[in-house]
Each structure stands twice: as structure tokens, then as C-alpha cells.
Amino acid sequence: MISASILRKYALLPLSGLAVACGSGGEPVKIAGGKPAAGAPAAADKIGQINVLVDASGGMQGFMHANAPGEPGSNFQQTVAALLSDVNGQHGAPAAYYFVKEATGADPRILVPTSYGALTSAVSTGIQRPALGTELPLMLAEALKLHAQRPGTVSLIVSDFIYSPKNSGETWRVKTDVKDALATADAARLAVSVFANTSEYRGNFYPGNRTRPQPLHGEKLPYYIWVLGAPALVAQVDGTLLKRLAGQPQAHFNTRFAPPYTALDHFQNKGEWYKTEPVAGVPTLGFTKSVSRKEPAEVVFGLDLKAVPAEWQKAAAQGLRLDAAATDATLLRTWPVAQEPAAAGKPYLQQYTYLAKIRVNQIPGAGALMHLTLPRQQPAWVAQTSTANDSNITKQGPKTFLLADVLQGVADYFADQPSAQLSLDLPIRVQRAE
């Protein structure tokens, strides 16, 4: 989001006429029930509210503009209008809609309640009276205030997320400012997903480094949809309301994806073992005979990763690891089901995307909890999209001022959470049969 002082410098009009009667904006939202991560409390699985917040600052006018008859509308308009329609057309949890602006003496609100109709009209036909922009940290803090008022809230925030501190000599504080803004929430109970995209931009672009505005005539600029909420709930929204964005660049912080996975007891198995009832939701294997290095057991797991981010799916074949606990187990191989010759004749394999073969050499008397894990990596697109100087955006291409610092601030906030090291953590219990 463009800094308020930058927009004031260019004398943008105040927000008026955008606020309408606060209400649900239409039908409540239906969210498909999601599977919580192993050990996650069941209460975290229920969405109580969906909030949609759209940046109504002058810096967003280039994305939300009027179109001539027959024009298809910008990528931004098509994507956000479809998202709003998806939210409005669902049933199950109420939805609320807001414009985001700067607080003023005449109107101290940062989030202005509105309706689905008013918000989608602004996206589709343009912001008639653009507001001054609010600072990114304030926008995040205000969204989290709504979460505190109603547990189970998930917020979708649409903006260019350009953050330029009012004091240009304090851009080094961007990471800290973003981290502090999130600190009103408990890091263990919050997750953030970021979906990136680009869209043609018409109008004045206001650089984050406070140089003069640049007129653009359809050049592409980045915009983002952020999802904030409880970890299991954010994963649900990512996989349902935002499923049309699955192919876009993404970054996830503390989001708990719990993809289906199970031992395949009739495929390339070795040794005497069987599947028992899950313990606390964790797949459990019972071994009827001792194993050793000379006589190991081998188990193939089917992993359905279709609902996790595409970049994680690509990383799974080479990046999946095994925390063997006290079992002395090893991960022999991970491979896509599409590359398994036997899959064509075995329909039960085709419901999975990857296979992982584990060799078990030792079963402790009290059992053990192994973990298939995928180490977390910073998405490459973040550095590629970030710039410390956007004063000549037409030559640079689609970049966002200090984006890497903004997302590093989010990462710093979650640094003490297990998800800071792991994208996926799939536990497996092994024990001797009774």
C-alpha cells in the first residue's frame, strides 16, 4: 500500500461516497470442511467469518479503472471480481466487506464497511473518489483487531502492498514494522498466505521511494492477495475460495496443510506389518515380527499433495526427508505416481500424487513417531519481484518496493514456530503389535 504521505503529496481526493450500510453483503460463506493437521484442536477447523478488504487508495486506481465497451477488464479486475463472487456465493459463514483507507480527522476509520455490490462495482468500474492510502502495518493491525473481536475470522486483503515509511530514512525498519504489526496476535494461532500476480496498469504509478509519479499505459505491475487467520482455517480458504489462484506465485507462513497420506499395505511392501487404527489422527503401523538391518521392513506411503502449494509439490520428489526418531529407518525413494508403471493398473494408486518408500530397521518397545517432512524454503519469486528503487518502473518491469523486507518481517514474526523450518510435517507411528 502506498504511504499516506506520498498520496497526500499528489493531492488525491478524500474518500467519500464509498461507505454504504454495513451488512453481510449477501449470502454467508460456505467453506468445505478441512482436515486439521495431526494434533491440531478440532475448534480450529471452523470458520466463523470471512472478511474481504480492498485497498481503495489512489495508488490502486491503475488496476481498477473504467473499461470501454468490449474490453475484457484487467487481470486484477477479473481475478478480484471472481474472488468476490466466490465469497458472496458461498454459504456457511457470514462475509463482510471493507474498503481500506487512511484515517482522517473527518473519518478516523481505516476499514470502512461496505457491501458486496459497492465493492465489486469499485473493482469493476473504478474507484470514483480514491482515498489516501494507509500504511501497511496499520492495515494489518486493523484486520487483526477484527479477528480478536470474532474468533474464527479469516481476512482476505487485496492491495499492491507497497510500504514506504513516512520517514524515508527509516526504510531499514520495514521488517520490524511489519513484525510489530502482527504482534497483536499469537503467532501459534495465526497464519499468513500471500498470492502474487501482475496486471496491466493505467494511470499514475506512485513509487515507494517517493520520486515523481510515473504515467503508465498498460504496463504490468504486481498486486497481492493476503490471507490471514488461524493456520488450519487459512489452509482451508487457500484450497477452496482461492483454488483458482493455485498456479500463481505464493508464500506461506505458519499455514498448516494436512494432505491425505496412508501406508499402502498391498504395494511393494516387505516384512510382517499391518495398519492399525490411527492414534490421535496419526497413521499407525503395527509390526508382528522384529525387524533388523538384515531383515528390514519396507512400507510405501501414498501422499495426496494436490491441495498443497504447487511449489511444494514440485519440491517433494527431491526435498522430502524422514525424521526416523528411534527406528533407524531410512527414506529410500520418493517419486511421482505419474512415473510409476504399475499405477495404470491400480486405481487405488491414482488417488495419490507421490509415493514414498520407507525402510524400517528397528522398532522400539514403546513405539516411535517418525515424520516425513519437507524443509521450508524462501520462494525464489520474492527476491525476483522486490526492488529497493522503483523510480523507473517502466524499465524495471513488475517489481514491488521492498517486498523482500516486508515478507521477511512476516517470516521473522513466525521464526519461533515449527513451520519456520518445515513446510510439511507428516507423522507416522510405528509400534510392536500387541
Structure explained in plain terms:
The chain has 434 residues and is of the alpha+beta class. The protein has 2 domains: 302 residues, no CATH class; 124 residues, no CATH class. The protein contains 10 helices and 18 strands. The N and C termini lie far apart (60 Å). The N terminus is likely disordered.
Number of domains: 2
The number of distinct β-strands equals: 18
**What portion of residues belong to β-strands?**
25-35%
Mean pLDDT: 83
Strands of the largest sheet, in order across it?
Answer: 3-2-1-4-6-5-7
Low-confidence segments: 1-44
Write a concise synopsis of the structure shown.
The chain is of the alpha+beta class and 434 residues long.
Task: Give the SSE layout.
Elements: H1 4-9, E1 49-55, H2 75-89, E2 95-100, E3 111-114, H3 116-125, H4 136-149, E4 153-159, H5 174-182, E5 191-205, E6 214-229, H6 231-239, E7 250-253, E8 261-264, E9 273-279, E10 282-287, E11 297-303, H7 310-319, E12 321-323, E13 330-336, E14 354-360, E15 368-375, H8 380-385, E16 386-387, H9 393-396, E17 400-401, H10 403-413, E18 422-432
Parallel strand pairs: 1-2, 1-4, 10-18, 16-17
Antiparallel strand pairs: 2-3, 4-6, 5-6, 5-7, 8-11, 9-10, 11-14, 12-15, 13-14, 15-18
Helix pairs in contact: 2-3, 4-5, 5-10
Keywords: Signal
Signal peptide: 1-21
Protein name: VWA domain-containing protein
